[in-house]
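Example (one chain per record):
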Amino acid sequence: MKMKMKKSLGYGLMEVALGIAIVGAIAVGTAATYNNIGTDAEANVLAKLASDIAEAAKVNYYACQSGGGTCATLADCDAHKTLFVGGAWPSGVTVADGTTSGCKITYGSSSLDNYAVPGV
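Predicted structure:
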Protein backbone atom coordinates (compact mmCIF):
# COMPACT_ATOMS: atom_id res chain seq x y z
CA MET A 1 0.00 0.00 0.00
CA LYS A 2 1.36 3.35 -1.03
CA MET A 3 1.12 6.34 1.32
CA LYS A 4 0.58 9.77 -0.08
CA MET A 5 2.62 12.61 1.37
CA LYS A 6 0.69 15.75 2.17
CA LYS A 7 2.09 18.87 0.58
CA SER A 8 2.35 21.94 2.77
CA LEU A 9 0.27 24.80 1.43
CA GLY A 10 1.68 27.48 3.71
CA TYR A 11 4.41 28.40 6.09
CA GLY A 12 5.08 26.70 9.37
CA LEU A 13 4.68 28.32 12.75
CA MET A 14 8.40 29.12 12.96
CA GLU A 15 8.46 30.92 9.61
CA VAL A 16 5.35 32.96 10.49
CA ALA A 17 6.79 33.97 13.88
CA LEU A 18 10.10 34.98 12.27
CA GLY A 19 8.28 37.01 9.60
CA ILE A 20 6.23 38.86 12.23
CA ALA A 21 9.37 39.59 14.26
CA ILE A 22 11.17 41.02 11.21
CA VAL A 23 8.20 43.18 10.16
CA GLY A 24 7.81 44.40 13.76
CA ALA A 25 11.49 45.34 13.99
CA ILE A 26 11.29 47.27 10.72
CA ALA A 27 8.12 49.07 11.87
CA VAL A 28 9.70 50.10 15.17
CA GLY A 29 12.85 51.34 13.41
CA THR A 30 10.79 53.32 10.90
CA ALA A 31 8.54 54.88 13.54
CA ALA A 32 11.54 55.97 15.57
CA THR A 33 13.02 57.94 12.66
CA TYR A 34 9.78 59.48 11.35
CA ASN A 35 9.73 63.28 11.18
CA ASN A 36 6.79 65.63 10.93
CA ILE A 37 7.04 66.50 7.25
CA GLY A 38 4.68 69.49 7.59
CA THR A 39 6.77 71.12 10.30
CA ASP A 40 10.01 70.42 8.43
CA ALA A 41 8.57 71.98 5.27
CA GLU A 42 7.50 75.08 7.20
CA ALA A 43 10.94 75.38 8.78
CA ASN A 44 12.56 75.14 5.33
CA VAL A 45 10.26 77.86 3.95
CA LEU A 46 11.10 80.08 6.94
CA ALA A 47 14.84 79.56 6.51
CA LYS A 48 14.68 80.38 2.78
CA LEU A 49 12.47 83.42 3.31
CA ALA A 50 14.68 84.70 6.14
CA SER A 51 17.72 84.37 3.89
CA ASP A 52 15.95 86.22 1.05
CA ILE A 53 14.85 89.03 3.38
CA ALA A 54 18.38 89.41 4.74
CA GLU A 55 19.88 89.54 1.24
CA ALA A 56 17.34 92.08 -0.03
CA ALA A 57 17.80 94.18 3.11
CA LYS A 58 21.58 94.04 2.76
CA VAL A 59 21.45 95.26 -0.85
CA ASN A 60 19.01 98.02 0.15
CA TYR A 61 21.09 99.00 3.19
CA TYR A 62 24.30 99.38 1.17
CA ALA A 63 22.46 101.32 -1.54
CA CYS A 64 21.26 103.73 1.16
CA GLN A 65 24.73 104.00 2.70
CA SER A 66 26.48 104.68 -0.59
CA GLY A 67 24.02 107.36 -1.61
CA GLY A 68 24.57 106.38 -5.24
CA GLY A 69 21.80 103.82 -5.58
CA THR A 70 18.08 103.75 -5.16
CA CYS A 71 17.03 102.62 -1.72
CA ALA A 72 13.81 102.24 0.23
CA THR A 73 13.20 103.66 3.69
CA LEU A 74 12.00 100.76 5.82
CA ALA A 75 10.06 101.74 8.93
CA ASP A 76 9.63 98.20 10.26
CA CYS A 77 10.16 94.55 9.35
CA ASP A 78 6.89 94.24 7.45
CA ALA A 79 8.03 97.08 5.17
CA HIS A 80 10.71 94.76 3.73
CA LYS A 81 8.04 93.30 1.45
CA THR A 82 8.48 96.40 -0.72
CA LEU A 83 11.91 95.06 -1.69
CA PHE A 84 10.35 92.05 -3.41
CA VAL A 85 8.61 91.80 -6.76
CA GLY A 86 4.92 92.50 -6.23
CA GLY A 87 5.55 94.15 -2.86
CA ALA A 88 3.79 91.41 -0.89
CA TRP A 89 4.74 88.39 1.21
CA PRO A 90 3.91 84.92 -0.11
CA SER A 91 0.51 83.56 0.93
CA GLY A 92 0.46 82.49 4.58
CA VAL A 93 3.59 84.44 5.55
CA THR A 94 3.60 87.30 8.05
CA VAL A 95 6.58 89.41 9.03
CA ALA A 96 6.65 91.70 12.06
CA ASP A 97 9.21 93.25 14.37
CA GLY A 98 10.95 90.65 16.52
CA THR A 99 10.17 90.22 20.21
CA THR A 100 13.50 91.70 21.31
CA SER A 101 15.31 92.52 18.05
CA GLY A 102 15.33 91.85 14.34
CA CYS A 103 12.25 90.42 12.67
CA LYS A 104 9.73 87.67 13.41
CA ILE A 105 8.76 85.62 10.37
CA THR A 106 5.75 83.30 10.66
CA TYR A 107 4.55 80.66 8.22
CA GLY A 108 1.87 78.15 9.17
CA SER A 109 2.45 77.04 12.74
CA SER A 110 6.20 77.82 12.67
CA SER A 111 7.96 81.08 13.56
CA LEU A 112 11.47 82.43 13.37
CA ASP A 113 11.83 85.21 15.96
CA ASN A 114 14.54 87.84 16.48
CA TYR A 115 16.06 87.16 13.05
CA ALA A 116 18.83 89.68 12.38
CA VAL A 117 18.15 91.80 9.31
CA PRO A 118 20.53 94.55 8.11
CA GLY A 119 19.09 97.98 8.77
CA VAL A 120 16.62 96.79 11.43
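Caption: The longest helix spans residues 37-66.
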